[in-house]
């Protein structure tokens, strides 16, 4: 994966939070708690078949680091090379890689996610947007009736604190301190809202929601 960020017209664009298997021993995640990736390169040796990953990681709380390691079976980056997509590793935080991906359609996205999970990774959808050249961009307003007040409060605090920025400007511990609850409670509330958003989006498409257009949660 390498820069620039995916921005292909007519493609589905998503931001994924990918947590590799511990067996992957990701050297980028091992470089620090949180940061951005400014350079990344995967090189294969045709004779040995071995693949090496080189990257430059800029830490939020320290200097940039050059890291290099052999690619193992649990590494997630090679998965993107197996599919029709353009991927950019934007950053990392708390053991999770933040990846922007452009794919031609939802079927290819499903295949990419399946490939990542086959490698032992946990994958969460952080943002999704679809667009095409010359198309009108419209907002899909999703039903938020099933979201509780505590969940709404957690999402508002997270948004204000920059939790949904790339890279994130706040982590779960910081949100927990602001809300006066445990880290796991914050995680559960945010996951519930994110799950609701995705379920509503899928249902909207089943009901014939016209694309391409971006998806967001409307105010209620």
From TrEMBL:
Domain HTH bat-type, chain residue ranges per copy: 147-199
Domain DmsR-like N-terminal: start-end pairs: 68-128
InterPro entries in the record: DmsR-like_N, HTH_bacterioopsin, RNA_pol_sigma_r3/r4-like
Keywords: Transcription, Transcription regulation
Protein's recorded name: HTH-10 family transcription regulator
